[in-house]
Structures are given as C-alpha cells and as structure tokens.
Amino acid sequence: MGKVDIHFHRIDRAPEVYRENLIADDGMRLHVYGIVPDEFRESWSRRWQSQGLVSAGRIVARVRKWHFYDQWFGIMELADPDGRVLGYYCDTVTPLEKTAEGYRLHDLMLDVWIGADGEVRVLDREEYDEAAKSGRMPALHQEKALETVEWICQEHEAGRFLSTYAQDMPRTVASDPSVE
Predict the structure, then answer these.
(1) Is the Cα torsion angle 52, 54, 59, 60 positive or negative in sign?
(2) DSSP codes of every residue in 4-31
(3) Measured in whole angstroms, how far is the alpha carbon of residue 95 from the centre of its chain?
(4) Which of 8, 28, 104, 105 is buried most deeply by CB count within 10 Å?
C-alpha cells in the first residue's frame, strides 16, 4: 500500500510531517487515511472531547483526509472503531503543493468543525486574530482564511459542502481502508 508524506507548516512552529496511507491523488485532490494506533486512541479522543467536539466515551480510531490543489481548506473525517463518523474537522490551509519530499500545506489557523449531527462551529479564532494582529500571517492568508470559513459554513448550510468535497474517490490501492 502506498504511503505519502504531508509536510504541514504552522506559524512559529517547525513543520510536522504526517506519513499517510494513500487512497488516491487525481490531480485535483489527495485522499489519504490513517488508523489511530491503539496506544494513542484514548489520549487523542480526550483531546477532541475536551474541546466539546466528540462526545465523552466516543473513541476516535480512524481518520480520512482530503487535501485540495485548488482550494484553501482540507477536510479530516474522524470515525470510531466501527467506522461511524464522529465529525469533520476542516482546516483552512493553503492549496496543496506536490514537492520532491511529498506534499506541503500551510495552516491558516481558522478551522471549522462539522459534527455528525450537522452542528457547525468555527474554531481557533483567538489564535488567528493574534497572528493577524502581530503581522505573522500574510494579508492574503488572512483574507483567504476568513473567506474560506464563511464559504464552508454557507456551503454546508446549503447541503453541498460534505457531499461535494468529502466523498470517495476511485481507489489507487488494492485494499479498502473502510473495511479494516
């Protein structure tokens, strides 16, 4: 099964590299997935629970991600061990770039949570405001983050966001990650 490295850059932090299982790259978007190792499931789930995004007692066991070459967001679907979707974390990021080392994204700090029940919450506003006020985020990135959050919320309210962007792609790998 193919693996890809995604270099995720955040303001004032060293880039993090995520090694992901490739589902497909169709030139418009990259679709990857991961299984949360058993030893991290409890602590990682508590992180989501402490923010009020995942209900107490629910365990995050799997993630699927969609990154786009021409969009200013990425989507991470969180699912429990049985594959039930717990929600979608939508990062505002620069469009995906393919590099010699893999792929690269830059975090724009504002995020949107779409719960399994359809509830929408905008996240990390204080972090975004601080970076914008201090000049650590370029003006274009500030503008794109705000526009993207507003657009995601509007598209979701209209019933188009997840059905358009968080959908399966033709598989380029032999096994189906949703059956593990």
Answers:
(1) negative
(2) EEEEEE-TTS--EEEEEEEEEE-SSEEE
(3) 13
(4) 105
What is this structure's pTM? 0.91
How does pLDDT run across 89-104, given as a tens digit for each residue? 999 999 999 999 999 9
Tokens representing 41 are 């499931």
What are the Cα distances from residue 164, in Å, to 25, 52, 72, 158?
Answer: 16, 26, 15, 11
| Distance, CA of 104 to CA of 72 (rounded, Å) | 13
pLDDT tens readout for residues 97-155: 999 999 999 999 999 999 999 999 999 999 999 999 999 999 999 999 999 999 999 99
Q: What is the rounded CA–CA span in Å between residue 89 and residue 22?
A: 19
Q: Report the SS3 class of residue 127.
A: helix
Long-range pairs, 5-10, Cβ under 8 A, ≥24: 5/101, 5/102, 5/103, 6/30, 6/32, 6/67, 6/102, 6/103, 6/104, 6/105, 7/99, 7/101, 7/102, 7/103, 7/104, 7/105, 8/105, 8/107, 9/104, 9/105, 9/106, 9/107, 10/106, 10/107
Token pair of 119 as six digits: 């509830």
Helix (H) or strand (E) holding 138: none
